[in-house]
Design a protein that fits this description.
The chain is mainly beta and 104 residues long. It has one helix and seven strands, in the order βββββββα. It has one domain: Beta Barrel (Thrombin, subunit H).
Length: 104
């Protein structure tokens, strides 16, 4: 699902210093999410953020720079799964639903 929402991303750097940044949630699925940041986050870093009804945690699987910032892919931990019932980003676009409406 494509989306847009601001989240406070947290992790510890290689010196075990706590890091906190505001990130833009770009997309989300049951098993992971993509966030846009101003600076890179190393692969394998454990990250987390909270929503009103759910905490999210996972591991950075990719971090690439694209014109406007770093896009960080997070694979959710086994205990963490996303659903619309527990967290609805401010702006959410369901591409499958959009395509099915156009076919009608």
């Amino acid at each position: 699902m494509l989306c847009a929402d601001m989240v406070e991303l947290r992790w510890e750097d290689e010196r075990r210093q706590p890091q906190r940044v505001t990130a833009l949630l770009e997309d989300i699925s049951v098993y992971g999410a993509c966030l846009q940041l101003e600076n890179p986050v190393p692969l394998g870093t454990k990250v987390e953020w909270d929503s009103p009804k759910q905490s999210f945690s996972g591991v950075v699987r990719y971090c690439v720079y694209r014109e406007i910032g770093f896009f960080v892919g997070v694979e959710f931990s086994d205990a963490c799964r996303w659903s619309k019932k527990t967290f609805m980003p401010l702006h959410l676009l369901d591409l499958e639903r959009l395509v099915s409406k156009k076919k009608l």
